[in-house]
Amino acid sequence: MGVQVEMEIKENVVIVGGGIAGLATALALKKVGIKTLVLESNHELRTTGAALTLYPNAWRALDALGVSDKLTAIYPILTNARITDVATGAVQVVSFDGIMRPVHRSTLLDTLAQELPKDAIRFSSKLKSIENLRDNGSSIAVLTLEDGTIVKAKVVIGCDGVHSVVARWLGLSAPIHSGRAAVRGISVYPEGHGMTHELQQFIDIRSRGGLVTLNDKELYWFVTYKSAPNVVENRKMKSPELIQQRMLENITDYPPVFVDVVQHSDLRTLTWAPLMLRVPWNLILSDLYKENITVAGDAMHPTTPDLGQGGCSSLEDAVVIARHIGNYFHRNGEFGSDALKGYTKERRWRVAMIISASYLSGWIQGSGSGWFMKFFRDKVFYNFFSVLSYNVVHFNCGQLPKPLLAADEENSRKKLE
Q1: Any idea which GO molecular function terms this record carries (predicted)?
Q2: 308: left (phi over 0), alpha (psi -120 to 50) or beta
Q3: Please, what is the angle between helix 105-114 and helix 20-31, to 10°?
Q4: How many Å from the N-terminal Cα to the C-terminal Cα in the chain?
Q5: SS3 state at 290
Q6: Mapping DSSP to helix (H, G, I), strand (E, B) and coil, where does residue 36 land?
Q7: Distance of alpha carbon 91 from alpha carbon 83, whole angstroms
Q8: Most buried in the list 105, 211, 296, 388, measured by CB within 10 Å?
Q9: Sign of CA dihedral 233, 357, 58, 289
Q10: Domain architecture of the chain: domains with CATH
């Protein structure tokens, strides 16, 4: 039996996780002149989630990253939502004023990854443990990977998802179950689906479903439903065939158009997951960084999907953290904890609000079709929600600082060596 030889890697900035938050943060830091290494546990880019909808706040972040035009050229704007009460058949139309575009998750990840150097992502690199050491007065994060590789970094940004190892190391409490689960998938119609370009939602006493037009041949669909934490169900709902079968059994009251979409699912895109969230006061009261280590994306603020802000807020995180790190580095020629302090201070209240509002939105919209809830939802909540969502989706995360001039870069590089 051969002896495993440990490898040691030294980097200035290491990002744990190659999802939306991780790749966007790597690109944002590249834009300000800082090289990163992304550690991705999977053997390729992750595409779980099938598709997502992006609002103006996300597009402002993508503008800052310099890639928005590559996506807007592919995906048209959704103009409105058509909300159907499954029990009564009543339909309410809500205008979006052109604020939403759906994108394939895989396309977004590919677009971000293509802007990075070829050696920026290290695949099959699963984080096992973290240790923080002092070296000549500076903090050095020591990451041990499951293959025995040791990675030493001056800054670590955990973008490793809902069950983040980095968040756990920081002392953040584990995310809690929201009481719901979600199934997502993409349905393909080779001859065209013939539907208008809009979002359709279906509200039932037990669940809430949605259809989003991606293009002339593809539809993104989702169903969220009440679901208690269940270890057995978690294990069973791994087979796409079983996921599709369960969905068809549970949407018999839905209009035929929705059933047909589920039947046309590309099984490779089907996913099931419990909807988790981080308790908002945990974000407000906890330390979101320790010296040179912090978190972003779902690792910081897992939330339910009811405001459509999971991917959007992750893109915001990327620009904000790169702005703080870049500005500090440009002023001081080194990395410092004040940059992470500024980043977490700027983000904690906004993401806590998004988690709270998203959970409230999902609870109200999934509370059945009784006359009181219907009245409250249609006459009160949607009016309030329109104001709230406007403020959420039109947020501006700011711009990135320009990279240093060549002479300044050389001086900073010498300081770091």
Answers
A1: FAD binding; monooxygenase activity
A2: left
A3: 30
A4: 38
A5: strand
A6: strand
A7: 5
A8: 296
A9: negative
A10: 8-75+105-175+279-416 (3.50.50.60), 177-277 (3.30.9.30)
Residue 97 CA: distances (Å) to CA of 56, 162, 198, 236? 11, 32, 12, 41
Structure token digits, residue 264 = 């046309």
C-alpha gyration radius of the chain: 22
The structure tokens listed for 130 are 């973290």
Q: What is the DSSP letter of 400?
A: P
Burial 46-58 (b: 16+ CB within 10 A, else e): bbebbbbbbbbbb
**Angle of CA points 78, 83, 85, to nearest 5°:** 165
Are the C-beta atoms of residues 327 and 339 closer than 8 Å to each other?
A: yes
Report the SS3 class of residue 73: coil
pLDDT tens by residue, the chain, 417 residues: 444 546 899 999 999 999 999 999 999 999 999 999 999 999 998 766 689 999 999 999 999 999 999 999 999 888 888 989 888 888 988 877 767 899 999 999 999 999 999 999 999 999 999 999 887 778 899 999 999 999 999 999 999 999 999 999 999 999 999 999 999 999 999 999 999 888 999 988 788 899 999 999 999 999 998 887 765 566 667 789 999 999 999 899 999 999 999 999 999 999 999 999 999 999 999 999 999 999 999 999 999 998 899 999 999 999 999 999 999 999 999 999 999 999 999 999 999 999 998 988 777 665 555 555 566 566 556 655 666 677 888 899 999 998 865 445 555 555 555
Q: Which of 405, 403, 385, 382 is nearest to 393 (CA)?
A: 385
What gap in Å lies between CA 408 and CA 34, rounded to an integer?
13
Half-sphere exposure of residue 61: CA atoms within 13 angstroms, side-chain side: 33
To the nearest 10°, report the CA torsion of 140, 168, 13, 290: -50
The SS3 of residue 59 is: helix
Distance in angstroms (rounded) separating the CA atoms of residues 322 and 31: 9
